[in-house]
Write a structure and sequence with these properties.
Elements: H1 8-20, H2 25-32, H3 36-51, H4 74-83, H5 89-98, H6 105-115, E1 135-146, E2 152-162, E3 168-173, H7 178-192, E4 198-201, E5 208-212, E6 215-218, H8 220-229, E7 232-235, H9 245-259, H10 267-280, E8 286-287, E9 290-291, H11 292-299, E10 315-320, E11 326-329, E12 332-335, E13 344-349, E14 353-357, E15 363-368, E16 377-378, H12 395-405, H13 407-416, H14 421-432, H15 440-452, H16 458-468, H17 474-490, H18 501-504, H19 516-543
Length: 556
Amino acid sequence: MTALWRTREELAHQVALLAKQGVLRRAIARALGIGRNTVRALLAAHEAGREAEHAALASPPPRTPRAAKVDAHKPRVAELIARFPDITAQRVFEILRAEGFDGGYTGVKKHVRAVRPPPKPTPSLVTPEYGPGEMAESDWSPYEIRFTSGTRATVQALSYVLVASKRKYFGLYESSDLHALMDGHALAFTRFGGCAAQCKYDSQKPVVLRWEGHQPIYNPRFLAFSSHYEFRPLAVRRGHPNDKPRTERSFWEVERSFLNGREFRDLGDMRTQLARWLDATVDHRVHRKQTALERFAEEREHLVPLPRHPYDTARVVYRVCGIDGFVAWAGNQYAVPYDHVTDLLPVRITQRELFVYAADLRCIARHELAPRGAGARLDPAGLHPLPQHRSPIDLDQIGVAFGHMGEHSAEFFRLMSQGAPRVWASQARQILLLRERYPTEDVDLALGHAASFGALDHGSVERILTARSLPRTLDEYVAEETTRRIEETLGHARTRPRDLTEYDRLPRKSAPRSGHQEQEKSPCRNETERADTASEQQQTTASLPSDCDGTCNSSD
C-alpha cells in the first residue's frame, strides 16, 4: 500500500479534511493506515489550534491569590451553612460583623456562593397519559385590555384543550360565571364535533360549590349541562397546576401569540381576530412532527357525539317592567310593549341577545345585548311611539293594575283617584313599582293598612312595607313554581323529624355486660326504624317531578 502522506503535517492535513467531509474516525484510520488513537489525537490538536490565541509574547504566569479578610472566618461560615442550609449571604455577613468581621459584603457573598452546596435538581412531575377522547382540561384567565376606542375592560379567556390531540379552543367573555362557562363549552363542542368523556376543572364556583373533605359538591346546573352532553367533570384542588398542565400552558400561547402585537377595537373585534387566529395559527402548530389537526383526525372518532339540540345556556331572571315601558338589565334599558307596564316578566339573556316574555311565555320583545353598564335605552322596533311630553301609561291601565293586586289595592286606588290626576298619578306609578321588591300580597296588605289611616302616598306605603315585610329576592320568583308543583304532588305534609332522644337509647360498644339482653333487642328495633325511614324517603323521591332533582338553583 502506497502511503498517502510523507510528513506529520501532511498527515494532520488529510485527517482534518476527511473529518470535515464527515468521514468516521475508523474509516480515516483505515484509509491512511494509522491507528484510531492517532486520528483522535490529531483531531484534538487541530481543534485546540483553531481555538488557541496567537501572541508573540508568552502569557504571564497566574498571580498568587491574595489572602482575603473572610479567610479567617471560613470555619464560622461553614458552621452557619451546616446549621441553616437556607441562610442568606446577607444574614451571614450580619452575623460576622457582629463577631468582629471588618470586611465587605461582596467577599462574604462570593465565598457563600462558592461553598454552599448546589440544590438538588427536582425532577419534573409526571402527568398521566390519556387515550383519544378520554380527557380534556378547561380553565379561565383574566386579561386587562385597552381597546382602541379608549375604553379599558377585563376580558375573561376560557380555554378548552383536548389532552390527546392538544387541539385547543379559546373563548372571550365579560365574566367567568356559569352561563359564560356553559356557552364556551357549547361552542367548543360545536367546533370539535364532540367532546371528551371527562374534563378537569379547578374549584371554580360555576363547577364546584364547595368541598366536603376530599369530596367536591358540584353545581347542580352544571351537572345538568354535563349530563346533556354526556361528559363527566373532574374537580381538582386549587394551587395544583400540574393536575391540568395543558390548559395552564395554553394561556402562555394566548399571551405570546394572540395578545402580543395586536390591537382591538372592542370585544366583538377581539372575538373576530381570535377566530381567525384559531383557524390559521393554533390548529397548524407542529408538535412532534404533527399539527393539531392531523392528531385530531385520529381523535375525532373517539369523541362523545353531540346531542341533536344544544343545551340552553341562557340566564333566566324576572324583572318588573317600569312605568316608562322598559326593563333593566346590566346597566341598560330594553323596551317592552306598554301593555305589560308594571308586570312581572321573565327575561332570558344569552351571551348576545335578550328576550322578554309575557306571563303566558309569549316572546314580546327581542334585543341585541348592549355592553354592560353602557346606560343605553334600546328600542329598535319602535315600541314606544308616544311623544316625550305624554305619559307612557294611561290612568285606566293604572286602575286595572291596582285591581289585579287585590281588594285592598282596589280600595286604595279608589280613594287615591278622587283627587286630581296630576297629584296622584305619579304616586300610583311609584307604588306599583314596589312589587319588584316586595311580594304582591304584602303590598296589598300595606295598601289596606295605609288606606285605613288615609295615608295615600308612596312614602307612607313604603315605610309600612319596610316595617312589616321582608324584601323579596329575585330567586323567589324562580322557586315559586317549583314549590307549587311539589306541594301539588306531595301535599303540605312533610316527614316528621325524628326525636333525637332515640339516639341516646342506642347500644354503645362500652355498655356493661348486664345490658347484653337489651343490646340484642335494640338492633331489631333499629333495623325496623331504618327500613321505615328508607321506605318514606323512597316514596318521597318517587313523588318528585321528573325535572326536579331536589335542589333548586334559583339564581339561574
